[in-house]
Design a protein that fits this description.
seven-stranded mixed beta sheet; Aspartate Aminotransferase, domain 1; alpha/beta; homodimer; Aspartate Aminotransferase, domain 2
Chain lengths: 395, 395
């Protein structure tokens, strides 16, 4: 069944948006809901909004909506903070769960902030932990019984290469390691079955395929049987068992709620909550089939028109997430030219052009048109135009 | 000069809002700016908003605006995350600055989340650090040369009792300790001169007296001469010297920018940025004089009408922040009755009724009217009405 629902998005005229893997576009229902929250809730109810408008429960309620898209049972996901913070929470908890081990295993395909957060944690713990970064294809052979935690991003932000969640989690568990998955490029992009996979932790952001808007809150999942044992390093008052008792001592809330830290960002939560409405009735299998059809078609069209581009993503769609990337020496200027011609993808140093495929609002016609425009830009060598060599965009 | 500018706020009819110390009301300019950001920036510019709408620079730019209100030089404050996270950042950095010391000194007037964050940090560091919590009046005598960091909230969230920032900071430094101030109830409430005080760190939130809205981002200040030496425990990619180089290794950005962690919450930042416009032309000395006049008048009016209430705040206005609290056995039900009669303050267990004085939108007439209504409620023993004994509000 088609999952296309372009009419639910506020897409600018004349734009083909292939960057929903970086920042999802604005769902039409968001502006009204945010405006209502600002004037009808904050303005009208003031402090009472925490109760009567349900602001205090939003992190759990919205977490369940996100959880539904990643195979997590209700009550196992909570929203808040940023993905970097959620990585820190998961990793610090994982290290406490394996006190005799000192190694964190990750790969060079992980998003850098995950690695930085691990480095910062290790430096401050000062217990001789080590972050071992291997190539993605070497992860399996490096999962030894010295590893405390395996921390990986499921879908590589540059190439779209996708790890086998089930197999790696199984290997991690066989070696006695804790598994942490970063689902930044997976949630809303590919089917994920957290409950079946058995990973202890998963984290992710909601401003990419979930269209929650710039700076939308992150999520964290804890496997339900473990949630009550996790000792939060970031022990904030809203993760306390009784925040409004104002005890001087910390007692963690039951379950994943202990991963809440400070006051939730209600404007962002409201925008995300509204944005999640576009997922109603979407079957993730249908979404995946549509995503593969779009990316395969794009690869074929580009291959036919742009012989200078080398596919940076796996050829096999089963090994890719919902994006396609190409290496091209003139990638940066070419992407600038593409954007100037209404096709928005993005560029990742040193030479990668990325295109995200989001079947909720991208269809076959968009994909063909984008490839045609890309073909013309390359044929006309527009990447040679100095206008497209301005300073690197922040994307 | 009067700082009253009630016309800039969207206050509900018939409400006297004495809870701006918990959540500031909606400044009128916010709704339009947020709506413009949602549709005119996110909707229209999509990913390009990070550059063309200045989203990426917001945390520093808005930080400077907040810094201006707390005596911080430009470039020494950055916005992001929540206050709990900022406490963790300051404290973890402070402990690294005093590696030979193991004690964190705080007081029982600190907001619980600050203490919880310290507990969580200590538990995970496992280096034998200790959190010593003394009574507020015992802080000075407990600042010894065993103390690594003194971590205090400037204005007590329950009583409004205000610490002497200059004197305590001086004592901390004399003992070789690092000073961390939580300005949650100070920023926009009382004059603060961070540059003169010399404290190493300050943190605070922006949803109270700064009216940034529910979940508005927090701020952190690092004394400029130290910022380049601070080693961030929460080493996120947007605190990296070159976030878009996507290096595998962390290198902190110069200065306080290293305290940025993940993707900033642009909707919340935009709301706060707009809300800060109401401060244009406000002299903090004038604000303080008006705040004292309002709180003194309220105390006098309440004393005349409500003999059953005991002042929980210092009598001397120089020792108070911008709030006044009373002990009252029936405080919870009385506050519910007050709210039902249009006077919004709040309640803090076990028996404290809090009233915040915010001279930008509260005037003498409001204060007298609030005291009159409180007097009637007590005279009529409305706290005895079962209608006001519902479950404790989350405020």
């Amino acid at each position: 069944m088609s999952v296309l629902r372009k009419h639910l998005f506020d897409l600018p005229e004349g734009v083909i948006y292939l960057d929903g893997n970086s920042l999802g576009p604005l769902p039409k229902c968001v502006a009204g809901r945010v405006a209502q929250m600002v004037t009808g809730e904050w303005g009208a109810h003031l402090i009472k909004g925490w109760n009567i408008d349900g602001w205090m429960d939003q992190p759990a309620r919205v977490g369940d909506r996100v959880g539904h898209l990643i195979g997590a049972v209700p009550g196992s996901v909570v929203m808040g903070d940023t993905l970097s913070i959620k990585v820190y929470q998961a990793l610090s908890a994982a290290l406490q769960m394996r006190p005799a081990r000192r190694m964190i295993l990750s790969d060079s395909g992980n998003f850098p902030t995950d690695l930085y957060m691990a480095e910062g944690l290790i430096r401050h713990l000062s217990h001789g932990h080590d972050l071992k970064i291997v190539r993605p294809e070497e992860v399996m052979e490096n999962i030894t019984n010295e590893v405390a935690a395996v921390m990986l991003t499921h879908v590589d932000y540059r190439t779209g290469r996708m790890h086998d969640m089930a197999a790696i989690t199984k290997a991690a568990h066989a070696a006695g390691a804790v598994m942490i998955w970063d689902l930044a490029h997976s949630a809303g992009a590919v089917p994920v079955d957290l409950a079946a996979c058995g990973a202890e932790f998963a984290v992710g952001c909601s401003y990419k395929y979930l269209n929650g808007g710039p700076g939308a809150p992150a999520f964290i999942y804890i496997r339900p049987d473990l949630a009550d044992q996790v000792d939060p390093a970031l022990a904030g008052w809203l993760g306390h068992a009784a925040p409004f008792a104002f005890d001087l001592e910390y007692r963690p809330a039951p379950g994943v709620a202990r991963m809440r830290v400070g006051t939730p960002p209600v404007l962002q939560m409201t925008a995300l909550d509204a944005a999640l409405d576009v997922w109603e009735g979407v079957d993730m299998g249908d979404l995946r089939a549509a995503s593969i059809a779009l990316s395969e078609r794009f690869i074929a069209e580009v291959a036919a028109r742009c012989p200078g581009l080398a596919l940076a993503s796996p050829h096999d769609p089963e090994l890719r997430g919902s994006q396609v990337s190409f290496h091209f020496t003139h990638g940066y200027a070419t992407m600038q030219a593409l954007i100037a011609h209404g096709v928005i993808g993005d560029f990742r140093a040193p030479d990668i052009m990325r295109f995200g495929f989001t079947p909720l609002y991208i269809d076959e016609g968009d994909v063909i048109a984008a490839a045609e425009i890309l073909g013309r830009i390359l044929k006309d060598r527009l990447w040679d135009d100095p206008a497209y060599h301005a300073r690197q965009a922040v994307t």
